[in-house]
Recover the amino acids of this structure.
């Protein structure tokens, strides 16, 4: 147990925090009142999981650190989230598709993490898996409604697939930090979920009249801190209060 | 919006096992989406253990202009309330 495990945990935690923050950006802006509640609701699920993971990372690495240090006092290059989750919301179709890609992956991931030899991770996985099951249902149903909706909504879903699909491959890549803990049966092997993920996405796309992309285009870099400029804007907004009032308590 | 996203009435069964109770309404394209939206809008604070949704158009309501003939006749029949009986002390609070 060491700094290496902390780094591996941060990959997971950062994915959840950044996507959770993206969902929170819909608060007051969603196209329907129902979604104005649903999207930030799901954001809170993700931020809750991120908090558990950051707190665990503190226990592993440095008991003097807190979850706030990880969330609010690191800069872009120190964040190791995958690029998919930091992509801007852009429109409702983009947001739904991003959520579908991520939650289908995480449902598989947490299901596997239930068999981890690490008790703490098993606990986090048990709670998160149920939340992911709902996120998959919510985003999956919307994907079908938008894809099989009007010509405009279908077109927007196709544009979303064109814009976001190349970011999905990063979900299935293990980093050196996590490798050590995969062989010890602490963390699940990301590569093992690809076939089931594709199967599930293809089933939903078929119902939604969306063609699953056949190319192998990919964009990577998030796990080593190489992000798009949009992450900087997100962090500036998310961290501003904490940086203005260091150590403030709620 | 009412054409593609009709109105649905939402009923939630509370934790204490009582019957489903009307909690409000929402817009959704179909029954699956209505159940999802009801879950998101009306059960965020652990309110329920079961959800029903029904298209608002399927509800038949009493006519407000007929309130007089519907409800006033019962107002002067106070003997229908169980307040004209002497309750034995042994029964306690009723």
């Amino acid at each position: 147990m060491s700094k290496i495990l902390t780094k591996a945990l941060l990959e997971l935690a950062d994915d959840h925090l950044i996507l959770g923050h993206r969902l929170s950006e819909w608060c007051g802006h969603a196209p329907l009142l129902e979604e104005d509640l649903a999207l930030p609701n799901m954001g809170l699920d993700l931020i809750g999981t991120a908090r558990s993971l950051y707190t665990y990372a503190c226990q592993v690495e440095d008991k003097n650190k807190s979850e706030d240090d990880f969330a609010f006092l690191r800069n872009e290059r120190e964040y190791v989230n995958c690029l998919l989750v930091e992509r801007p919301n852009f429109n409702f179709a983009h947001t739904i598709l991003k959520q579908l890609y991520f939650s289908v992956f995480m449902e598989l991931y947490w299901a596997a993490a239930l068999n981890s030899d690490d008790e703490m991770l098993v606990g986090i996985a048990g709670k998160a898996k149920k939340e992911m099951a709902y996120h998959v249902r919510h985003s999956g149903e919307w994907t079908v409604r938008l894809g099989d909706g009007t010509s405009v909504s279908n077109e927007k879903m196709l544009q979303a697939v064109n814009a976001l699909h190349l970011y999905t491959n990063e979900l299935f890549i293990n980093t050196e930090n996590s490798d050590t803990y995969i062989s010890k049966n602490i963390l699940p092997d990301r590569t093992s979920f690809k076939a089931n993920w594709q199967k599930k996405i293809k089933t939903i796309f078929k119902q939604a009249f969306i063609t699953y992309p056949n190319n192998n285009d990919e964009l990577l870099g998030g796990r080593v801190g190489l992000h798009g400029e949009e992450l900087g804007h997100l962090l500036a907004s998310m961290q501003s209060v904490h940086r203005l009032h260091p150590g403030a308590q709620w | 919006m009412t054409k593609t996203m009709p109105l649905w009435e939402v009923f939630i069964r509370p934790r204490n096992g009582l019957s489903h109770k009307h909690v409000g309404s929402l817009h959704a394209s179909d029954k699956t989406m209505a159940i999802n939206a009801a879950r998101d809008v009306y059960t965020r604070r652990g309110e329920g253990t079961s959800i029903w949704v029904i298209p608002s158009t399927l509800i038949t309501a009493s006519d407000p202009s007929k309130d007089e003939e519907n409800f006033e006749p019962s107002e002067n029949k106070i003997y229908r309330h169980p307040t004209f009986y002497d309750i034995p002390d042994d029964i306690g609070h009723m």
Observations:
- Chain B has a mean pLDDT of 89.
- The interface with chain A takes residues 5, 26-29, 32-33, 36-37, 39-41, 44 of chain B (CB under 8 Å).
